[in-house]
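Fold it.
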Amino acid sequence: MRLVTYANGDQIGVGVESENDVHFTGYTEMADLIRDGALGLERAATAAASGRPVAYDRLLAPVTNPGKIFGSGVNYYSHGDEEPGFVFPDEPTLDFIKLSSALIGPTDDIVIPAHDGVIKRPDGFHVDYEVEFGVVFGKRAKNVSREDALDYVFGYTLFNDVGARAVQFKNKQADLGKGFDTFSPMGPRVVTRDEMPDLEAARIQCLVNGELRQDATVGEMINPIPVLIEWITSIITCEPGDCISTGTPAGCGTFMQPPSYLQPGDEVVCREETIGELRNRVVAG
């Protein structure tokens, strides 16, 4: 099943896709559908069979207000290798939190912060992109073993883990550097687990102005999704709708020679064949 959250004027709805149409599920928050478990999926399936599509103006982030979004700093060897002198950790690293206030939809603008004299970065904020495969929890999870981990997954989505490197790397402020408004494009949809039977073959890519910058499969992760779930739920109880952004492969602009940061007028496309694509313009604040 493929699920989206859409806006039609002031109305917001959770929709299920059927061929080229979207059908209203009766929910206005994806997290409510997820919390309802089998009933939520049954209502979505009934809506898909109704034959009554809805019109909408744009897609929003599919989970509009997740309680927690965990981020993995380095979960691909290729990403660690591109940083000179990087030492790989000996355990999973879910080392920052993305804020729901940073979420935007699959076609919304990424806004480069203006230099306002409070956070002083005369050379700019050095805004960078990172395509990441996203996991959405389907039920409360605490002390989950890796063997059982996928039973707690509702579905999968995409994130662009945008970050201001000039904040992130100065004084090790990863949460703030990645937490600016608009710095978390998400979507375009959540696909349920049955839509991706060969999870490790899923290929994530990022293009900037049509140039392929990042390209890797889920199977290349250092710590696979079940390991990440086991790790984080040993520490924190995860709730339906919570997410994990599972790390990015090589190709970030900050490690290019010379560095290539996002500029107003750029277009960033993050994509995966089943989930679809995020296509976000970059604008000046």
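The chain has two domains: 2-59, 69-284.
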